[in-house]
Amino acid sequence: MKKIFLIVLDGLGDRPNDELKGRTALQAAYRPNMNRLTREGQGGMMHPVSPGYRTGSDTSHLSLLGYDPEKFYTGRGPFEAMGLGMTVLGGDVAFRANFSTVDQDGVVLDRRAGRITEGTDKLAQSLSFSVDGVEFFVKAGVEHRGALVMRGKGLSDLITDSDPHEAGQKVHEVKALDEKAKFTAEVLNKYLSIARKRLREHEVNLQREKEGKAPANELLIRGAGQAPSLTPFHELFGMKAASISGIPMITGICRLVGMESINVEGATGRLDSNFRAKFEAAYKTLEKFDFLIMNIKATDVAGHDGDPVAKRDAIQRIDAAMKDIDHILGDTVICITGDHSTPCTMMDHSGDPLPILFNTHGIRKDNAVLFDEISCTKGTYHINSGDVMKILLQLSDRAEKYGA
After folding, report:
1. Which of 72, 133, 170, 360 has its CA 20 to 30 A from that of 335?
2. DSSP code at position 111
């Protein structure tokens, strides 16, 4: 049986960009290694979850790993919190959080607080306290990101976000979606009011204002959820598994299914991430594990920024970082794809399918010769993300026979 290396280039899929002469970022990138793996292996197109779905990274990663999000997804918050190393217990309600900038009227000026990179750990410490018998815990993540966990009796995740999801809108009051969630919404609004005052007066923000920087004076929350119960990955597929990711939410999903998280120095989850170090760590990890999933976030960051040149350049750097990947093909199945499309023209996730490639020693070749959104339509596969694990198991000689 062979090992499996699943490489997920976050937000990989794109649409034509004027800045790139009508090409996608992937088409415009110099990508000899991805093209060679496609030409010497099998290609195709993949729909995240189902055709036309605009998926999040959470739902699409669950699907890629063989867990149907329509059965198991309860919101991104718990995954984000667990990915940051927070404890999420039964009954806890967890949220994704942004340190953001608002004006005196509560209108969001910048959902990322100027992409703040320092001081958020101190801000988070000031936001962990209790209100009306409910404990609140906040932990900072990468840049402006963080997570909030509520712990207490009678809590519900059937509440709305405070995050308006775009600048120029007022921070939303949290509302209950049913009667049982009224207490949760009330205590959360009280908490956010106190948190707002603490952030406004915090020394980190006072210093940022002196320096002419955007203060992180609002904690926007979204994606309320309670942790689902998932069968461990090793029980489902009989493989010892690990993950490499610079994004807490992806790490959280993988930890939830029992994967070991591998930390890589320089893996930031940003455009400046050390891709070479991630691949070197991956090769070492595969010496001890049967399955490895590696998420690279940079392509998604550039897509959300609406910067096709940065997305092209990130793809080129990623491709260069995998120059030694051929040496593992003998006993490993390699799969490269994305979790969803993040077109630079949209600056958000779309429902477009994205390319996928499979390669290993002895694989049948097909008609896909380049790795991009158009060329891969000539390949073997036209699948949904929920099919990926089945194909990987088959190519690695791990699939059980269906029938007699």
Report:
1. 72
2. T
Angle (nearest 5°) at CA 247 between 242 and 171? 145
Q: Return the SS3 of 167.
A: coil
Burial class (CB in 10 A: 0-12, 13-18, 19+), 132: exposed
DSSP-derived pairing of the beta strands 93-102 and 108-110:
antiparallel
Q: Verify that 241 and 217 share a domain, yes or no.
A: no
Strand 145-151 relative to strand 354-359, pairing: unpaired
DSSP string, 235-284: HHH---EEEE-S-HHHHHHHHHTTPEEPP-TT--SSTT--HHHHHHHHHH
Residue type for 230, please? L
Mention every residue, 6+ apart, whose C-beta is less than 8 A from residue 263: none
202, 107: one domain: yes
List pLDDT tens digits, range 29-72: 999 999 999 999 999 999 999 999 999 999 999 999 999 999 88
For 104-149, write each residue's pLDDT tens digit: 999 999 999 998 999 999 999 999 999 999 999 999 988 899 999 9
Instruction: Using the 3D structure, point to which of 172, 203, 225 is the last residue of a domain.
Output: 225
In a domain, 40, yes or no: yes
Distances (CA, A) of 283 to 289, 294, 320: 10, 11, 15
DSSP string for residues in 312-377 = HHHHHHHHHHTTTGGGGTTTEEEEEE-SSB--TTTTS-B---EEEEEE-TTPPP-S--S-STTGGG
Q: Residue 40: exposed, middle, or buried by beta-carbon count in 10 A (0-12, 13-18, 19+)?
A: middle
* φ and ψ of 39, to 5 deg: -60, -35
Is the domain of 112 the same as that of 138? Answer: yes
Radius of gyration of the chain (CA): 22
pLDDT (tens digit, 9 = 90+) per residue, 161-177? 999 999 999 999 999 99
- Give the containing element (helix H, strand E) for 208: helix 203-210
Q: What's the CA gap between 264 and 180, in Å, rounded?
A: 43
| Cβ atoms of residues 220 and 376 within 8 Å | no
Which residues, in sequence order, are CB contacts of 342 under 8 Å at separation 6+? Answer: 10, 11, 12, 13, 14, 299, 300, 303, 304, 348, 349, 350
**CA torsion sign, 7 to 11 to 16 to 20?**
negative
For residue 318, what pLDDT band results from cuts at 50, 70 and 90? very high
Task: Note whether 24 and 302 are within 8 A (CB).
Answer: no
